[in-house]
Amino acid sequence: MRNKTLYLTASGDLRLAANRMCWPAQEALETALVRAAESMGYAVDRRPAFDAAKGHGFLDSQRRGLEIFAEMDPERPLMVACAAWQYSHHVLPGLTTHKGPILTVANWSGQWPGLVGMLNLNGSLAKAGVPYSTLWGEEATDPGFMDPLRRWLADGALTHDTSHVRPSPDLSENAVAASVGQRVARDLARRKAILGVFDEGCMGMYNAIVPDHLLHATGIFKERLSQSALYYETLRVADDEADRCRAWLERRGMTFRTGPDPAADLTDEQIGLQLKTYIAALRLADDFGCDAIGIQYQQGLKDLLPASDLAEGLLNNTERPPAYARDGRRELFPGRALPHFNEVDECAGVDALVTHRVWNALGYDPETTLHDVRWGAPYGDEYVWVFEISGAAPPKHFVGGYAGASSERQPPMYFRLGGGSVKGVSKPGEIVWSRLFVEADRLKADLGRATVVALPEEETERRWRATTSQWPIMHAALHGVTRDQMMARHKSNHIQVAYAPSAEDADRALAAKTAAFAAMGIETYWCGV
């Protein structure tokens, strides 16, 4: 590139506590990036300057992002560094009009969700049609990091190997399974379905909002609901209703790790409010005839209620505490899950709804959830990913089911009012993974296969210590997809997962789900299979 001065910026959280906690890791990444760029003859202009009063240098609001980008030369090259979770809308408006080359960069660390944040930003840029390059690595001094950085600095663009991706194949050899998926799609086209969206656009996840015209073409529509209604309904639930739910969970062996200090511990009051939220969500879904719901929580409810993750994990489980309509007589959604899409990720909502219906049609356990693509590391001869979400996983996915599930207080840096997770270790088995995303004004889907592997307890604990120990974990070995191929292609912080009884059944489910997406008009790809 002719311009030998490049910008460096970083989007952060909206929550001050999270930005302060994560700043040392962010500063370490940026220091390494500056040294690398300077060693190649480039000067780095970091925007904004470190804010001593706040204790960090992140862009921490959309307004702050607009102010900083207004001061930048739009023709200069720009790096966006991600060592922590970030709200993409803090930088996305400025990036949409930036003309110089853009590089998103993350350190290969599980400590804070920097990789998760970068994948979200990449998905948002792809949806917005903004050209970008992306780069990740353990150390900025490694050749695997330095060589691509040198190419980007020279050429203004960087490409990665995505040879694992191909258009979904002809399914004639899987005609029976394909017919199942096609029937699901026809039923959606005829009867249609409703996603209950409790406030749209969680944490700036632009990539998680499906435009209505694309969604309607699939037979799915949004019921736009307010989280204030969920809060009001939660406060109307009686104490004894929540108590019965907790007793049901404890009879099945679920453990609640409580303590006396609400600022640091999970308390009985927090658990009660979480279970009231669970009942309230079911009642509102019933009121509006929703087929799946998504709760935003991180904005709005975070200042009113404990975390919604306990409620969300229970909703995704077919076997769950009975909850009743307001008259106390009619059970809500008896004998079935109400699919929940965490952080109101509508792409995951469509995926969860279709997965739930396809798996039911195949006679498989229909529990499904999204995880963050958090991090990964080799173990033995395999590369094993850490898929980890903030507690909204169904206990059916865990070793031991409810007896293998615990609830621990959510980290105060994210969840000021506490509340517990649904924590467990995902059971070994065969899964189908997928991700819907928006690109070039089209709804697209990547699908693949993976095996959830069992790791020794000490390795699981090591991975939890390296990430977030309060959250559920899945050890996933992807079929036919390397670490770097996954990072190069994936257009989201989230990945949808669902189990099948065997490898053969998982292949059958992959074909059925592919057929359903294709019949819904979704442009579908297979990754590594």
Question: Which descriptors would you attach to this protein?
Answer:
L-fucose Isomerase, Chain A, domain 2; 20% strand; 6-stranded antiparallel β-barrel; Rossmann fold; 15 helices
Summary?
With 529 residues, the chain is an alpha/beta fold. 36% of the residues lie in helices and 20% in strands.
Distance between the termini: 38 Å
CATH homologous superfamily annotation of the largest domain: L-fucose Isomerase, Chain A, domain 2
Number of helices: 15
Strand numbers in spatial order across the main sheet: 11-12-16-15-14-17
Overall pLDDT metric: 97
CATH A-level architecture of the largest domain: 3-Layer(aba) Sandwich
What structural category arises from helix and sheet content? alpha/beta
Shape label: globular
How many structural domains are formed by the residues? 2
Describe the largest sheet.
6 strands, antiparallel, barrel
What is the share of helical residues? 25-40%
CA radius of gyration is: 22 Å
Question: Tally of extended strands?
Answer: 18
State the assembly state of the protein chains: single chain
Q: State which percent range the strand residues make up.
A: 15-25%
State the low-pLDDT regions, or none. none
